[in-house]
Design brief:
The chain has eleven helices and ten strands. It is α/β, with parallel strands linked by helices. Helix 3 crosses helix 11, helix 7 runs parallel beside helix 9 and helix 10 crosses helix 11.
Length: 381
Amino acid sequence: MPTAKSSIIHILTLFFIFNPIAYSIDFNYPAVFNFGDSNSDTGELDAGLGFLLDPPNGQIYFKESAGRFCDGRLILDFLMDAMDLPFLNAYLDSIGAPSFQKGCNFAAAGSTILPANPTSVSPFSFGIQVNQFLRFKRRVLELLAKGKKLNKFIPSEDYFRKGLYMFDIGQNDLAGAFYSKTLDQIVASIPTILVEFETGIKKLYDEGARQFWIHNTGPLGCLTQNVAKFGTDPSKLDEQGCVSGHNQAAKLFNIQLHALCKKLQGDYPDSNITYVDLYTIKSNLIANYSRYGFEQPIMACCGVGGPPLNYDSRISCGQTKVINGITVTAKACPDSTEYVSWDGIHFTEAANQYVSSQILTGKYSDPPFSDKMPFILNLKF
């Protein structure tokens, strides 16, 4: 059976052969400023809350956790590679003289679009992340005014106008709500969530941001965590084994997010707003996992309990705890490249690699750019 990696490279090779047209959407950005949750967190939450992610997180590529809830690289990392830019440092990670010359990552695991509350996993909601950016920009401009000494560590002033602003957030607003609300209540809350998102986008636009790259939310009902908690009744599952209600909420959220992106493009005609359909990409991966070299579409690689889900909400990947009088450790599977799910909540590096390759075809974006693909990707898979 081909590996996920070889399948991805084969797909990209075929795509490049049959689509030899020049690429016009400018991926030559000098910097990237990213906002989001654990799908793109490169160390913000563990730096902000002062904890270290346990191994085997990061085992594939970094050989250490690197602040990522993954066995290796995230979708964001692969996209940065495609733009020939370095991986983004987390805003709050100050150790090791991090460079922010090519951008900054404000994404934090557990974050929501709506303001955080006392029970939130992360206090760094979208509004806080935007405020962090505003402070970041202000401090950069102050430092630039003092001379060139720090130029290799901070972005140039024009990078804030020319840079790409990326967003992958909203998953936790929906997923967390299912623990206390009905599907109808969650659907009714979507407009309020998106008003908050629009407010943040407007603040960034007013600060000079013009290039926006917005990911929609994936099929929440296919995450192991949600199948374990809400999928015990088989009638609640779809043909892929995913929780139908969660996926319905995600679809309705995405419809309204897409409409908002269209509205924003009309409101800000001098900007470029790209909506990226991760839901379709991820759903296709889960439905056709074996075609892309995977063996497990839903079962977690790193967890406890064994098949069919290998997931227990009481213990996170890498932790050791006493459960029912027995000491157990949530260990990684022998080969994470066979799994879509890393820890029951987040994708493996192999799955992130596949998703990234599909994003870069351009055909899942609005406006699409598949008819103008490819630019020559500096692939580092």
